[in-house]
């Protein structure tokens, strides 16, 4: 059987393309949205990372999910600094999740609480993506809305404690390859990864609806 890291990557390839080329993402990367759309997107990420990172203390001791729990990946504090920059000191008071975001966060929480292997699927989908394509988004955001390079507004995309993302991703793939799951469970994880991508696409769709661009 091919290494699990290859399996999960190949299985989500099509959906990755769909996420990357979604209307909202294309418009964001194309510099066609105002900063309000970017702030709204960042706000949605807050709910997702809150769900991903709230249960890590417990998951760290889990034999399946534990090895993936790495504090240097945590994004919530960075998101909070970005939101304070984008929305001002009262950012927390105005925080609101789109229904699609609510559904995504709920699914992450469910996995974190009841199915650690499923949690790994969500962990992979977010953090490996942030370490990769996230850098493209940061670059565009800096250019489009004038954020300081790697500064407030785009801290979410800056992994201060991961100086070598390529090496980190190699290590992460080794963890995936050694995951303590049998073949059936591995297939379930891959299916959950597809769900994770679909949930992301759902958020993009909702954001696209909220920020329509006249053609
Ligand atoms: C415009 C948006 C995006 C761009 C430009 C982008 C770009 C990329 C690139 C270039 C890679 C390859 C990195 C490598 O080979 O090491 C990658 C990997 C990845 N991306 Fe994205 N991506 C985007 C959106 C997303 C989204 C929305 C998700 C899911 C939430 C995602 C999840 C992933 C994952 C999980 C990987 C790792 C694949 C693997 O090596 O196993 N990406 N992305």
Automatic annotation (TrEMBL):
Q: Does the keyword Heme apply?
A: yes
Q: List keywords of the entry alphabetically.
A: Heme, Iron, Metal-binding
From which residue to which does the signal peptide run? none
Superkingdom per UniProt: Bacteria
Binding positions for heme b per the UniProt entry: 9, 16, 124, 173
Q: Which Gene3D superfamilies match?
A: Heme oxygenase-like
Q: Which GO terms describe its biological process?
A: heme catabolic process; heme oxidation; response to oxidative stress
Show the GO MF annotations: heme binding; heme oxygenase (decyclizing) activity; metal ion binding
Keyword check for Magnesium, yes or no: no
Q: Name one Pfam family in it.
A: Heme_oxygenase
Write down the PANTHER family for this protein, in alphabetical order: HEME OXYGENASE
- Please state what the protein is called: Heme oxygenase
Q: Which organism is it from?
A: Streptomyces brasiliensis
